[in-house]
Amino acid sequence: MKPFDDKWLFEKAYENAPFAMGVYSLTEDRWLRVNPSFCRMLGYTEDELVELSDRQITYPEDIVLSPAPLPSLSSIEKRYVTKTGGIVWAAIGLSPLTPDSGEPAVLLVQAVDLTAQKMREERLLDSARQYRLITEASLDWISRHEPDGQATMTYSSPSCKAIFGYEPEEMVGQGAIPLVHPDDLERVLHFLEQNRHTGGDKVTFRFRCKNGDYVWLESTTRYTYDKDGNVNEIISISRDITERKKADQQLQESEQRYKSLFDHNPAAVYSMNLDGDYKTANKNLQQITGYTLEELIGMYWGPIVAPKDLPKTLHHFELAKQGFPQSYDLTIIHKDGHPVEINSTNIPIIVDNEVVGVYGITIDITERQRYLAQIEKLSSEYTLILNSVTEGIFGVDSSGNAMFINPAGADMLGFVPEELIGKPYLGMLQNAFGSPAQQSEDEQIIYRAIREGHAYHNKEAVFWRKDGSSFLADYHVTPLIDNGELRGAVVVFKDITGEKEIIRAKEFAEKADQAKSEFLAIMSHEIRTPMNGIIGMADLLAETELTEEQRSYADIILQSSYALLRILNEILDFSKIEAGKMVVNHEPFDVRLVMEHVVELFQPKAAERGIRLTYELDGSIPPTLIGDEGILRQIIVNLVGNAIKFTEKDGHVSLTAKLDQIPGRRDAVLQFLVRDTGIGIPADKQSQLFQSFSQLHPTINRKYGGTGLGLAICKKLVELLGGAIGVDSQVNVGSTFHFVLPFELPGETPSADALAEHAQRGTPAPALVSGRESGGSPSPKFGPMKLLVTDDNSVNRLLLLTLLRKLGYEADYAENGAEALQAVRSTTYDIVFMDLQMPELDGFETTAAIRRLKGDAARPAIVAVTAFAQKEDMEMCLASGMNDFISKPVFAPEVERVLKKWSPHEFYQPHQEKD
After folding, report:
1. pTM higher than 0.85 for the full model?
2. Distance between CA 534 and CA 532 in Å, rounded?
């Protein structure tokens, strides 16, 4: 056999090689030959490829062949671009074919297709990336464990930080078994043993955190095995179900409570579907109907209901199915045939805003109906007795509402019985509003009879008729007690005065009241006449060109005049109300503007005192109401002013208005509340608040001032508008004054007095202006002295400081006795001007405290400055340790006399003024 030719063998190997082969010319930068495998790999024919350079078929980023000399690189990996644009990975082997010259001009290129391998590697990398992303992003805890007895952790996903407080690195190397709660350990070990063979189950257990607490986990595990079938690794996925466990426990408790309420409810409790079939029921329904629970479940309620009540029951059931709870009485037929009176309540069962059934609650009222029938029979008999007696008899329930009144009682009080039944008993005794603390003594007696269960007797009390007239009555109060329970009280009364005595007493009281009101009205008007002149002229003076000092004096005149005018206005308003001459206007107004104006009025004063003043309006209040805007503003101003006056620094005063009800188109009832965090009012003093000229305590009057008419006027104005006013207060906590007023709504015809004029109102006083002489302060007239002015009234304090400044002295001042005492302790004064009535310490107490001091602090001459100008007042001041006395109003010559007399400069001669 002829041996094979080497060239022939090479050609055969070249043509049939399973990998790509080609000859590449570096000098010509093109392929010289390529084998069929190269063509199949790239999709080109050999003729097409020999016309291309390597760069033209190489992926742009992988171009490595060039005509330049190659580095010593025998193999590389690169990407080719196929004829159709696809990418092929290839492992390239380069073998230079060296000619005789010794330089590589031609390369033998061998290319193995790596595309499938590269895709497998990419899938593996992608799988690894996905695994890492899942394990790192999963909220579940993914862990890997050695199959040793401790389940030592070899991997922990990052979620362990949020669940257990451990960093992943801290968990690796720890055993998982020691961290399982001891009570759950046996269950976990059993699960691991069982799951090794079965797989797919879950186990719940408690796992210890880094801080020692335990969380509930729900875990699944998988095992990996080696080629011999031995466990190689345990992989676990665990979820934190602590919150779910808590929710399950709460649900279980809720279900237990519901079951207890359902099973042990004294009423019959059941549920029905929309067709009226019973779905569930407790044993009480069995007792009421006589049917067993087995008979009831699935049974329609219709056959149980008495025929006469079937339409009514069907009507209420249909309404319940529409989402409206129902309660009604009806008769059912017991299984043995006798009727049973029941009260049934139907409540819709709503799931996802859809009614899916009806709950029922039923109680047996047969005995109650019999009891009511007996009561009705007895009531008829006793009504005959009550109607025949001449004494008045009425009964009130435990809430103080009238239950009954006999004709004689109603006749004496001037009412029709129907006007009183169900109304508070207050109207039977006195035409008044208010809480028990504001009631009359007789009302409080009845109130105590109801609350305490004691009988009372009053031989001479005043009862009021509907028309406002009164009569003397002798009455007994007897509590109503049924089976040890206080049900209310019965009042038996009789008229013990003759008609002439009543008329005479009434006329006398009316004449005296009218005389008082007329006197107050006349005096108020007479005083207002010169006051108006003073204010008017002072206003004109303020509009002229004045020096700063003159303008300060004019401002003081105006402020003092306005303060006096406010007091006169209170007296005049009170007298108008008392005389029945206050006119109520009915005009449209916006309550929001009233509130805003009042708050704007008091905001500077509140800010000056360090008090936070706020207001709030109910958004449902109509924008326009019909009523007396002026009277409403006066009520609110009085109450807010009082609140600010009795609230200390850093306190809070709030004004609130809300809509209580709109009974119809004509009326809108508004409730106003003025709250403060002030000194509060003792419970035993609250009944005096709305009385005329009433002030709770001299010290309060001394500190805060006032006529004692403000709240009395508020009460009368509120009642004049058809409303009611009251107060809730606690000492050192604060007070809430609340009143309700009815207003008409727009579109209705106003009353006849809608065209009446507004009542005259006072104008707020301007702020004080401190004045100084434009030409500078003069020299001290009686030698240098250190002076202190003590007065709680800013106007009086400013007047005295101004007089001293005109004499060449800049004095210190204190606003009360405590401040004055502190000032004397820290500074040596020559003269102290001392007001007598001040808060904290009055003038007498402050003087005594100063005289007890040692050294120079006890030395100053103390001069009393007071409105009490009687001889005995002067003697009292001197006896208390004071040195001199000046009466108010203070005049400059008196101040000059005091300075000259008590100046420590004995030989100082004041200069003589020229004529």
Report:
1. no
2. 5
